[in-house]
Inverse folding.
């Protein structure tokens, strides 16, 4: 399952005790068992996790937010220019997903 997180979070596998840590403003591939951790339900309800994989059954507030903000289909150069125009600190070493996450976070503030 692929998710986008707005804060650093940790999830514990109830069977093995394994801990998965996800970092804020990143797209992460995580195992399906994180749905069993109560922290996951809290993070979904608070909006700190968004679904990044349309094939999963995670309910989020708005999975088409990227399309509504005009980021969908833009290349890295276009995203860098847009971030600069909006006064959002990014650099050319960042991945496209990271730039989009920074733009989305900046739009919510």
């Amino acid at each position: 399952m692929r998710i986008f997180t707005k804060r650093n979070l940790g999830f514990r596998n109830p069977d093995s005790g394994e801990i998965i840590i996800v970092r804020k403003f990143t797209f992460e591939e995580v195992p399906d068992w994180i749905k069993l951790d109560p922290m996951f339900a809290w993070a979904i309800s608070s909006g700190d996790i968004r679904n990044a994989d349309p094939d999963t059954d995670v309910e989020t507030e708005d999975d088409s937010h990227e399309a509504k903000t005009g980021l969908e289909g833009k290349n890295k150069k276009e995203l860098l220019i847009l971030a600069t125009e909006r006064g959002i600190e990014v650099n050319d070493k960042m991945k496209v997903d990271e730039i989009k996450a920074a733009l989305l976070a900046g739009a919510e503030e």
Notes: The chain has four helices and five strands. Strands lie at 2-5, 9-12, 19-22, 26-29, 49-51. The CA atoms of residues 71 and 81 lie 12 Å apart.
